[in-house]
Write a structure and sequence with these properties.
The chain is an alpha/beta fold. Helix content is about 25%, strand content about 30%. The structure holds zinc ion.
């Protein structure tokens, strides 16, 4: 099975790296979807009615001599099917010690779990880290997780975030963090969820985190996930960002079918996903 995928965005060398695949019950992934449409839609993607395989895919982009990593995968405590980012990255010829900057789209465990190994050591020891302040503050407050019924994952989130406390830079809004690398608030999925836009030589690559969980969320923009903490805001944000990202740019979607790289095309009342291999 392929675990990494090289491509170019403008003059930027990019690598999508698989962290693994997890199997989810379909209901929380399509929380408000009518069952019939959901089942038919999933069948078009070759999926069964009740469970859906959801990949985790990180992104590495070389920007002016710096290696930028977007999200870190689930880490190894989530079972053997995920948490493979570091070995897969090394197999592709990238030393984790060479990562200069880690951008965290949000603080869900499938995105920050790979910050440290099982011994609590940083997996990207030379990197600086960037995260939205609203997510940093929300996920470090145990009462917020208690309220969501997620108390049991608080210690893991707290340990991962504490590990980068000395090196993290918290941002409040949209801003250019490196030449041609722009952060974009994309709130709703979490309070500080962000997208990252890489621009080079007239081409753009939109790395949209969990703005979308499955290609069906493009076709049915009103469908949301149980993991979208503020669903109405998540849908508004999704539509606003897709309306900008559907102008021929490349997109990286963390949970889309491997390699998670393609183009977002307007289609009917929504959009559709065109994987890169077919796009070129
Ligand atoms: Zn996720």
């Amino acid at each position: 099975m392929k675990t990494s995928f090289r491509f170019q965005a403008g003059a930027l060398q990019c690598l999508a790296v698989a962290d693994g695949v997890n199997v989810y019950d379909v209901k929380p992934v399509f929380l408000n979807a009518p069952e019939g449409e959901r089942t038919q839609g999933l069948a078009r993607y070759g999926a069964e009615p009740d469970v859906v395989a959801i990949p985790y895919i990180c992104l590495v982009v070389a920007v002016g001599g710096q290696l930028v990593l977007v999200d870190t995968g689930a880490g190894s405590r989530h079972g053997e099917t995920v948490g493979r980012l570091v070995p897969n990255m090394m197999a592709a010829g990238i030393d984790p010690a060479d990562i200069d900057l880690v951008i965290l789209t949000h603080a869900h465990t499938d995105h920050i779990g790979g910050l440290t190994d099982n011994a609590g050591r940083l997996q990207f020891p030379a990197a600086r880290y960037i995260m939205h302040r609203a997510d940093w503050e929300f996920w470090r407050l145990k009462e917020n997780l208690d309220e969501l019924g997620w108390s049991e994952i608080f210690p893991e989130i707290e340990a991962k975030l504490a590990a980068i406390e000395e090196r993290v830079e918290l941002v409040d809004g949209g801003r250019e963090i490196l030449p041609g690398v722009r952060l974009l608030p994309a709130t709703g999925h979490t309070p500080g969820h962000m997208a990252v836009v890489f621009s080079s030589a007239g081409e753009a690559l939109w790395s949209v985190g969990d703005l979308l969980g499955h290609p069906l969320h493009l076709e049915y923009p009103e469908w949301y996930m149980a993991y979208d903490l503020a669903p109405a805001e998540a849908i508004r944000t999704k539509k606003a960002i897709l309306a900008q990202a559907d102008k021929g740019a490349l997109a990286h979607v963390f949970h889309f079918p491997f390699p998670g790289i393609g183009r977002i095309q307007p289609a009917g009342d929504g959009w559709r996903w065109q994987p890169l291999e077919q796009a070129r």
